[in-house]
Amino acid sequence: MVRGLKTFAACSALILAFPGAAHAAEGLACMENSYDQGRRSKIAAMSENFSMSDEEGTTSSEDLAGVAIEAADKCMAQEGWSEEALYYAGIYEISRLSELAYRNSGRLTADELSKLDEALNRSERPAMWNALERAVEGGLQGEEAEMTSKEEFLVGSFVISAGLGADEVAAEKVGELLGLMALVRYSKREFEAQFTKE
């Protein structure tokens, strides 16, 4: 499972409390709302063969990046984002599309995804998310996703509690998906921070 997080690294209750952050959330939605039917069909087709690796015949986050960055650029002009906000918006949309693609790719079964989501809904797990977000932030900076033994325990115990720890291959895939989800959370928070500073 930790190997899954390393593979990923390689390749918001407070929103309404701040007017600027609320505007930021609207801006992030701008990207998804900008896709016409042709773009949506392209994204759906690319999702069918999604993989975190560069296997021949598969789609990666890099392939989805072109669609995401085009939408981010369009929304930058429409919403008046700074270049710093554009960066985090682009990371957000790439990771959001990648998470959706991973879920639709069949790499995890419907039952495994259901168990994962049910476990996530049972508790907030802030320490686990902090660990995951720290790891993916390091990945963005070109660093290897290293986790402390405590952080590995927190993530591992969550996977076990979800009923997904017995199968090592499935656990690694869960690690990859959690990494994508952590990057969505991280980039969203950093994007919103650009507006709360104003």
Please provide a written account of the structure.
By secondary structure, the protein is mainly α. 74% of the residues lie in helices and 0% in strands. The chain has nine helices and no strands. It is globular, with a radius of gyration of 17 Å. 34% of the residues are buried. The model is unreliable at 4-22 (pLDDT under 50).
Q: What is this structure's SSE topology?
A:
Blueprint lengths: L1 H9 L8 H15 L3 H11 L13 H19 L3 H22 L5 H13 L3 H15 L8 H13 L6 H29 L2
Helix pairs in contact: 1-7, 1-9, 2-4, 2-9, 3-5, 4-5, 5-9, 7-8, 7-9
Spell the H/E element sequence.
Answer: HHHHHHHHH
Mean pLDDT: 83
Largest sheet: none
Unreliable runs, pLDDT <50, ≥5 residues?
4-22
Strand content: under 5%
Cα Rg: 17 Å
Q: For this entry, what is the oligomeric state of its chains?
A: single chain
Instruction: Count up the helices.
Output: 9
Shape: globular
Give the distance, in angstroms, between the N- and C-terminal Cα atoms. Answer: 39 Å
> Helical amount among residues, as a percent range?
over 70%
Given helix and strand content, the structural type is: mainly alpha
> How many strand elements?
0
Give descriptors for this structure.
198 residues, mainly alpha
In short:
The protein has helices spanning 2-10, 19-33, 37-47, 61-79, 83-104, 110-122, 126-140, 149-161, 168-196. It has 198 residues and is mostly helical. The relative contact order is 0.20.
